[in-house]
Amino acid sequence: MKLTLEIWRQKNAADGGHFDIFQLDDVTDDMSFLEMLDVLNDKLLRDKKDPVAFEHDCREGICGACSMVIDGQPHGPMQETTTCQLHMRKFKDGDTITIEPFRARAFPIIKDLVVDRSSFDRIIQSGGYISVNTGQAQDGNAIPIEKEQSQKAFDAATCIGCGACVAACPNGSAMLFTSAKVSHLALLPQGEVEHSKRVRNMVNQMDAEGFGMCSNTGACEVECPKGISLENIARMNRAYLGASVAAE
Amino acid sequence: MWLINLLTSSIGKKVIMSLTGLFLCSFLVIHLLGNLQLLSADGTAFNEYAKFMTSFAPIKIISYGLYAMILLHAVLGIALWSQNKKAKGSKYKVRTTQNTTFAGRNMALLGAIMFVFIVWHMSKFWAAMKFRLDPDATTGVVDLYSEVSGAFSHLWVVALYVFSMVVIGLHLHHGFQSAFQTLGLNHKKYTPLIKGFGTGFSILITIGFSIIPIWMYIQSIS
C-alpha cells in the first residue's frame, strides 16, 4: 500500500519543531507500525537524510517504550494495543497518517518522537516499591490472598508505564499511571504496610514533576494499552486523603 | 503543615473544587424551590419570600458563605485551568475526543460563562432587591416580583436565561459525578447510580429554572 506520513520533526528540546511529509510506496499489510517506520528510516539513510527518531525496545507490547501519537491517539487506533503491536492492515492504501510525539510539559521532547519520561521513574523512586525482601515467587504464593483482591492488584500491575495516559490527557495529568502503581502495591499484604507513606510521597513527586490535575474526562482510560481503570484514580484519591489526615 | 500540604496538592485542590461544587448544587435546589413561586401570577408570596431570605439572620450568614464558595470555586477553577494548560504544553495537530464528553472537556469554559451569567443575574435582581427598589413604607416588602416579570417580558432576556441554564446543566452533568470520583467515591454498585442521578439532576435544574422565564414571558404577552 501507498501511504503519506506526516511526522513531527524536532532536533532537540530547544528547537521549535515542524512536520515533515514522506511518501512510502512499499508498505505491506503484515508490517507492524514500527517496521513501517524502519522501512522509512532505511530509505532516509540511503538518501543520506536524518532518520526519524522513535523509541522502541521489546516490540512485544510489554515494555512501553514505543511512545507516539498516531492520528491523535497514543499508540494508534487499536484499543488496548501498543504501537509495536499495531499492524499496517489497520490502515488503507492512500491513507495519510499523522505521527506526533507524546505531548506534556513533564515529557520534554528529546528528538522527533522521542520524549524524556524519566519523570515517571522519579515517581516510582519516590515510593513504587516494597522496602523489605519479600522473597521469590513461591514465597508470594505462600500468602493466601483472595482471588478478587489479587486480580485487582494484577490489573493495576499490568501498567507498563508508557505514558499514553499523560499523552491522552488534555491536562497532561499522570493520575492514571501513579494510581495504578499505588494500587497494585496497596492491594497486596506485602505492600499495604508502607501504603500511607507511599501514596503521599508518590503524589507529591507527581505534583513536583509538573503534571496536570485530573478533571475526570476519561480520555486516559480509553487510550491505555493495558486497560487500566479510572477506579484506580478514585482509590488513590481516597488513600491520599485518608493518609494525609491520619499520618502522624 | 499537613493541612496546607494536603490542600495545595493536586488532589487537595480538586477536592476543594468538588466540595464547593457539591455545596453549590445544594444551593441550586433551594434557589429553584424558592423561585418556583414566581409561577404564581400573584407576586405576594414571592415578595414575602424574598424579604424573608434577605432579612432572616441565619440565611444572611449562609448567603455570605455562598458568595465565598462561588468565588472560591470560580477563582480556583480558573487557576487550575491555567495550570493544566501549562502542564499540557503544546497541542496535537490531530485531536480525538473519544470516551470524553463536550462538558468534560470544557468545564472551565462552561464555568466562565456561568460566572458572567451570575454577575449579570445579580446586577439585575440581587442589586435591585438590595439597593435599587424602595420597600413598601408599612410592610417593608420589596416588589421584586414586578421587577422579575418586567425583565422576563423581553424575549432576549428569556433567551439568554435559558441558554445560561443549558450551560449550567452541562456543567452539572460532568461536575456532579466528577466530584464523587475526585473524593475517591467510586464503586461498582454506586457509581452508575451517582452518574444516573447526576444526569437527572442536571436536566431537572435546567428545565426547572428555564420554565420560570418562559412562563413569565408567555404571561406577559397574553
A few lines on this structure:
Chain A has 248 residues and is of the alpha+beta class. Chain A is built from ten helices and seven strands. Chain A folds into two domains: 3-111, Beta-grasp domain (Ubiquitin-like (UB roll)); 117-246, Orthogonal Bundle (Fumarate Reductase Iron-sulfur Protein, Chain B, domain 2).
- Could you name the CATH homologous superfamily of the largest domain in chain A? Alpha-helical ferredoxin
Q: What count of domains describes the coordinates of chain A?
A: 2
Arithmetic mean pLDDT of chain B: 94
CATH architecture assignment of chain B: Up-down Bundle
Low-confidence stretches of chain A: none
CATH class category name of the largest domain in chain A: Mainly Alpha
State the low-pLDDT regions of chain B, or none. Answer: none
Amount of beta strand of chain B? under 5%
What would you call the structural class of chain B?
mainly alpha
Rg of chain B, Å, rounded: 20 Å
Gross morphology of chain B: globular
Proportion of residues in β-strands of chain A: 5-15%
CATH topology of the largest domain in chain A: the name is: Fumarate Reductase Iron-sulfur Protein, Chain B, domain 2
What letter string, H or E per element, gives the SSE order of chain B?
A: HHHHHHHHH
> Over the alpha carbons, how many angstroms does the gyration radius of chain A reach?
20 Å
Order of strands, main sheet of chain A, comes to 2-1-5-3-4
Form type of chain A: elongated
The CATH first-level class of chain B comes to Mainly Alpha
